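Session log. Operator J.P. requested a structure for one protein chain; no other inputs attached. Running the standard single-chain path with token output.
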Amino acid sequence: MILYPAIDLKGGACVRLEQGAMDRATVYSKDPAEAARRFAKVGFTHLHVVDLDGAFAGEGRNAEAVAAILSATDAPVQLGGGIRTMTAIEGWLARGVDRVVLGTAAARDPNLVRAACRAHPGRIVVGIDARDGRVAVAGWAATTDMTARDLALAYEDAGVAAIVHTDIARDGMGTGLNLTETLAIARAVTTPVIASGGFAGVVDVARLAAPEAAGLAGAIVGRALYDGTLDARAALAVLPQRVGGPVAC
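Structure written below.
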């Protein structure tokens, strides 16, 4: 089980949104690189970084902040948000990003995702952001008719390194991970699945440590870390981290 601290970028700052709403952002740090260093010092071995502005714009908007994070830590970084072309994928992989997360592209451009998986095995993650079970795209501004489970199944044979399943209604709210839906997806596919959205501190640590959650590859934690409702060292003691490299697939 890997716990991924989330560094969400808006205007170069480290923020947390509530349910993906850009007008409901709390700024936690204007130095994302320092946040990355703090997470590494505590003992986190991987980072999950999202360019929120890029997700809405359809192309990168926080490249300088991402580059600073990459320079600040040796921890593998998976990056999402506005990455929708092969040029963007290869550009970030060349700059040191360990894995890229494709969300909107996964729903709208399956040929790109499959080509990227062939060209960069083990380095392409599909991000499935769901609102009431339906896939949302374009920075969560639009909801499709496709279910999260169906999108996961669509890439079962593509060589995707992992799937990040985010429950939008819970994201940034601290109401608890939607393990019911996430585990249902994990049971439906062979691809490693990472839970995201609403991490509620020690309660979710216990749930992730339970035998029924053994099918998950990891979980992303955001606001609970920034607000201090999660004791990072205690969580890492319960859920030891895999050191270095991508999650096995």
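Operator note: Residues 244-249 have pLDDT under 50 and may be disordered.
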